Write the structure tokens for this entry.
Amino acid sequence: MITLENVLFKWHAKQPEPTINITKLDIDQGEHVFLHGPSGCGKSTLLSLLAGVTVPTQGNIELLGKAINQLSNSKRDRFRADHIGYIFQNFNLLPYLSPIENVTLGCQFSKQRQKNALKNSATIAAEASRLLSALGLNDNLQHQAVAQLSIGQQQRVAAARAFIGSPEIIIADEPTSALDTQNRQAFVKLLFEQASAANSTLIFVSHDETLQTLFTRSISLVELQGGTDATH
Amino acid sequence: MLLIKLATKSLLNRKASALLTLFTIAISVMLLMSIERVRVDAKSSFSNTISGTDLIVGARTGDIQLLLSSVFRIGHANNGVSWKSYQYISGQRGVKWAIPMSLGDSHKGLAVLGTNKDYFEHYRFAKKQPLSFSQGHEFNHLFEVVLGAEVANPLGYQLGDEVVIAHGMGNTSFHNHDDNPFKVVGILKPTGTPVDKTLHIPLAAIDAIHGGHAHQHEAAQADANDHDHDHDHDHDHDHDHDHDHDQHDDVDLVGTPKQITAFLLGFDSPLYTLQVRRNINQYKDEALLAIMPGVTLRELWEMLSIVEKILLLFSIVVVLISLLGMLTSLLSSLNQRRRELAILRSVGARPWHIFTLISVESLLITGLGCIVGIALFYALMLLGADYLQSHAGISLNIALLSSYELMLLAAIMVAGFIVGLIPATRAYFYSLADGMSIKI
């Protein structure tokens, strides 16, 4: 499903220590993985590699059976649009679009995700609305200006945008850091529900280890780094 | 479609600066279109001033000076043409008609033209259109006047009103011959030429007002003339012209002035033109000049064309400046929008989507700017048409956009698109470099 082999990444050639040095990492389809580690251990870089934004200096990254590091830039872009949903730490919603429009944006650059979305609902707007409701954002909030939503509500919009069109991989980069503890757990459970419904692999990055117990698998990036095989 | 929608919403999100940019472009479009419309219409008004006349003959001077003084009533000829020469030349073979013109007098700053009845019959403007009357008829008596359309309207004259002609040009002449009022008997339809601003009186009446008192002049003329009967009648008529309008037989409206300012000639066949012109230019008794109005009009316009080119240049520069304004605002907003672009990248937009998005934005701004500019242009035309007509004699054509104007608009759109490629390219490279990482 997701396979990293002997992956080495340096930002520039003369860097003495590689930012990422992973001998082996396997993640199965449908797994909910908790990835943790202190700041500066290379979490963001690893996510960039997993999302195909950057390519490793050495080694192979296989996503859904495709060696993503061998694809051209534009093919990687298309692959990401078709197969990966990304939830950012600061949500990154477009302020001039409504919540519904922000969510539908998630599948508008990918025919495949549009097709997937239309399996669940008649229109992609209806699917966006369905996802938002499932994530706990009620109807009258769905057409409001994004800026008027609370942090928690904005985050639901960001999650719905990642889930629309059922991408195989969901990457969540510290999505709960702005929430209080109770809301964090509720939010993670909502993510699980949606990920399970779509049989998506969820890679959840956080430095908040209290959430770790909710996940079936937990990976410490510090342990993963430096060539140790961290596959449990 | 998606990108157009995104571009629109993103622009609406930046309303203030987008509207300002749009408005700058709109104003520059309005300016360019107005200047071009006025230029084209001025040119056609100009070349429509006189037609159907084969030669204009005056005392020897410059071609253009003769044209200006005889047709445009600008400046004045220092010398005239002697009546003898006029009679000789107009009696030549092939001459179909001759219209004597005597200029130099004015009424409230408007030119007074002494001429004969042939003027109303043979004078042509635009595409050989004859003069026609909106009210009344041509003059039949010595102290009758036919007004151009722009004389009658602003001054509020109507048929039957009395008009006083002053000697010399200008509003405040020393001699106002209050005892020689002219009666308005006809008002011409608008022509869009200097005819509109002219008062037409019989040629003989020019001598009458120059001679001081019409009666004396008439008497003198009667002595020197064979047409005793006519002049006596005329004399009588002038005495009590308030009472008996109806009786006019064969009034001599031409008389025998010493000189006239110029005269117009029409030939039976244009083939005579060059030959007669040569004869006139070599005329031994008097230094005369004959010009072909069409040719001289073209020469005059070519002289003015430098002004027209400078105007065009200025308006093009204004459009360029407005497009550069758009470039500035798009480029400066781009830095603040890197985050927005990265978000789009993260949801799967590829770099060429970003490129298209920014291009569409610049096209939207330019396109809307053009539309608003056209609206402003028509508003300006509607407001300015009357003023230009009355002050510059340019009749504006408030019609649909000509193919030339559409071409100008297309050129602006293309220029806007090309200018938009600069920020679009920049955004393209930003999005390649930034990827999904949001740095701002």
